[in-house]
Structure formats: structure tokens, C-alpha cells
């Protein structure tokens, strides 16, 4: 399983679904605020996913930054819990002077790093709560990245207006229509433009969301695409995350006219001890936790 609401009291995936509810005690502030009573595996479309995730990230913005703010920094581009940095990986190529779009930017530390390295960056996110952190960090750093509130499934940008689009765990795990989202991103890229994004490695969905030994036990099917949905007492979604296999993502990318150039699976560095939700040294030594897709719109 692979929920990104790191460190939450989200119940583990038991591998069973279809309306079956598990019942954790609400632990996280966002869960209490939204009245989350449990989770299930069930279908959730675009409207429900957008409504739930917009409310979730608004409610969780404070906790997310208390937990991960120091790891993410304010003008640093960290791709993943394995701490791979764009400074070292250079997956985006030369970004100086390029028009770059950050997708699902959160507080936008990546966008500010890019701006600091000469890119013309626009950053967007669904959540006003996350964008409030981005605006505060803009002010604190003096790196004034333009911020837009938008849903990745329907981009408010002109066609062929960016040279590069990138995302570190933003938007893609949360959209119901990933094929449509990739088409939108391909549309706003100029010919030859790159789309590079990090997501939870799809194989993590077969395990419980546990950084310890319990997280080494297979409890679900890799092939089960049923979304992970947290719900309130009325059954309304309070958080939705969508699982796709590697093949599903490749097909959605190629269907959008993009070419896959690389699939990076960052290895856990020996010296890294920090646990991020279900990402840990124990699991990182054994199997990948992040998949970074490097793709391009043909010139
Ligand atoms: C795990 S956070 C990652 C944020 C940031 N990239 C980082 O590294 O901290 C996921 C982000 O995706 C955003 N998001 C979720 N669904 C989205 C959508 N449909 N469109 C745009 N952003 C979305 C959330 O609001 C949240 O800020």
C-alpha cells in the first residue's frame, strides 16, 4: 500500500476491498477535522477525488510541513524520500532560461530551487492550504515564484507554453484520470519539452503502509487498481489515492504522445536514516520506493 499522507493513522491495506471498512482511531488532525472514520478500496471518479484531496491537503498542510518541512527545505529540489536531489541527478537537463511548470507543487521548494538556478517557473497546486505555505516561503526567501491554484486534470495554461514540466509526488497519485492529465501536460509542453515526475513505486501497493518488518509482508495484489479511499461517517471520501501499475503509466504516457526516456528507481543511500511514512532504510534496502519517469514530447 502506499498512501502519501505520511505518518498518518491510515489503516493498512488488507488486500480486501469492495466496501469493506477498516476502523482506525482518527489520529491525524486532518482526519479529525474531516471526520475520517476508516478506509476502503472502492472506485472514486474525478469530481470525488478532487473534492476529497483538495479538502485533505488543506486540512493536512500544517502537519505535512511540521513533519517534512525540514527535509524538503524552502529552495531545494528533493525528488523523493530517498533524498535524490535535482542538483545531483539533473533529470530535467539544463533549465536556465527555460519556462518550467511545477505540477502539484505543495509549498513549492522545487520551484524556488529552479528559479534560483535561472528557470522561469510557474507552480500550481489544487490546495489553497498548501499554496499558503508556498506564498509564505516565497516571501521568506525573496524568490517570488508565480503560484496558481489549479487541478492537474484541466490546466489553465496555453498550449505549448513550457519547455519542462516536473513533479515530486504532486497531483499524479491523486488524479482519477491519469491519461487525461498526461494529455494536458503534453498539450502545455512545447515540442521537445520534458515531463519528469516522481510517484510512489507501484509495487509498494502490495505491502501494508508500514516502514517496519510488517511492511515486508505481501497483503494485496499489484494488479488491483481499485483506489484507496478514506471516508467519513456518511461514506463520503476524505482522501483518495489511485494505484496504477508501471505498464498502466507507460501506456497513459505513450497514449498522450510522450516518449519514455528513462525510469529512475532511486536506491536508498547508506547514510540516510530518516523514515518518511512507509519509506524506511529497512524497506529501501530491499525494493524500490519511488519511480521517476523521464519523458519527452517529440520535437
Ligand atoms: C505529497 S504532496 C507533494 C507536494 C510537493 N511536491 C512536495 O514535494 O512536498 C501532493 C500534492 O499534490 C497536490 N494535488 C493533489 N491532487 C491534485 C490535483 N488534482 N491537481 C493539482 N495538485 C494536486 C496536493 O494538494 C499536494 O500539495
Secondary structure blueprint with pairings:
Blueprint: H1 29-34, E1 36-41, H2 46-72, H3 86-89, E2 99-103, H4 109-116, E3 120-125, H5 128-141, E4 147-149, E5 162-168, H6 178-188, E6 189-200, E7 228-232, E8 237-241, H7 246-255, E9 259-264, H8 281-284, E10 290-296
Parallel strand pairs: 2-3, 2-5, 3-4, 5-6
Antiparallel strand pairs: 1-7, 6-10, 7-8, 9-10
Helix pairs in contact: 2-5, 6-7
Bound molecules: S-adenosylmethionine.
Share of helical residues: 25-40%
Report on the biggest sheet. Answer: 7 strands, mixed
Cofactors, ions and other ligands in the entry: S-adenosylmethionine
Strand ordering within the main sheet = 4-3-2-5-6-10-9
Q: Which blocks of ≥5 consecutive residues have pLDDT under 50?
A: 7-20
- Strand proportion, as a percent range, falls in 15-25%
Structure overview:
By secondary structure, the protein is of the alpha/beta class. It has helices at 29-34, 46-72, 86-89, 109-116, 128-141, 178-188, 246-255, 281-284; strands at 36-41, 99-103, 120-125, 147-149, 162-168, 189-200, 228-232, 237-241, 259-264, 290-296. The strands form two sheets. The protein has a seven-stranded mixed beta sheet with strand order 4-3-2-5-6-10-9. The longest helix has 27 residues, at 46-72. Residues 7-20 have low confidence and may be disordered. The structure holds S-adenosylmethionine. The site of S-adenosylmethionine has 21 residues, from helix 2.
Amino acid at each position: 500500500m502506499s498512501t502519501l499522507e505520511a505518518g498518518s493513522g491510515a489503516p493498512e491495506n488488507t488486500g480486501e476491498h469492495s466496501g469493506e471498512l477498516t476502523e482506525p482511531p482518527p489520529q491525524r488532525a486532518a482526519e479529525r477535522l474531516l471526520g475520517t472514520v476508516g478506509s476502503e478500496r472502492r472506485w472514486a471518479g474525478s469530481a470525488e477525488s478532487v473534492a476529497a484531496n483538495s479538502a485533505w491537503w488543506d486540512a493536512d498542510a500544517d502537519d505535512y510541513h511540521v513533519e517534512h518541512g525540514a527535509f524538503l527545505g524552502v529552495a531545494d529540489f528533493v525528488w523523493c524520500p530517498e533524498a535524490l536531489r535535482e542538483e545531483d541527478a539533473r533529470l530535467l537537463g539544463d533549465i536556465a532560461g527555460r519556462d518550467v511548470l511545477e505540477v502539484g507543487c505543495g509549498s513549492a521548494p522545487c520551484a524556488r530551487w529552479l528559479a534560483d538556478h535561472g528557470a522561469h517557473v510557474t507552480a500550481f497546486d489544487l490546495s489553497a492550504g498548501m499554496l499558503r505555505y508556498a506564498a509564505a516561503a516565497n516571501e521568506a526567501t525573496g524568490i517570488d515564484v508565480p503560484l496558481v491554484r489549479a487541478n492537474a486534470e484541466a490546466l489553465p495554461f496555453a498550449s505549448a507554453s513550457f519547455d519542462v514540466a516536473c513533479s515530486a509526488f504532486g497531483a499524479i497519485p491523486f488524479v482519477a484520470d491519469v491519461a487525461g492529465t498526461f494529455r494536458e501536460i503534453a498539450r502545455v509542453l512545447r515540442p521537445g519539452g520534458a515531463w519528469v515526475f516522481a510517484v510512489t513505486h507501484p509495487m509498494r501497493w502490495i505491502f501494508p503502509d508500514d516502514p517496519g518488518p510488517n511492511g515486508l509482508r505481501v497483503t494485496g495484489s499489484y494488479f488491483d487498481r481499485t483506489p484507496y479511499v478514506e471516508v467519513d461517517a456518511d461514506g463520503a471520501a476524505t482522501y483518495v489515492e489511485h494505484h496504477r501499475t508501471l505498464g498502466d503509466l507507460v501506456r497513459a504516457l505513450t497514449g498522450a504522445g510522450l516518449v519514455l526516456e528513462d525510469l529512475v528507481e532511486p536506491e536508498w543511500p547508506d547514510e540516510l536514516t530518516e523514515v518518511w511514512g512507509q519509506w524506511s532504510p529497512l524497506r529501501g534496502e530491499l525494493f524500490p520506493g519511488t519511480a521517476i519517469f523521464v519523458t519527452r514530447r517529440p520535437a
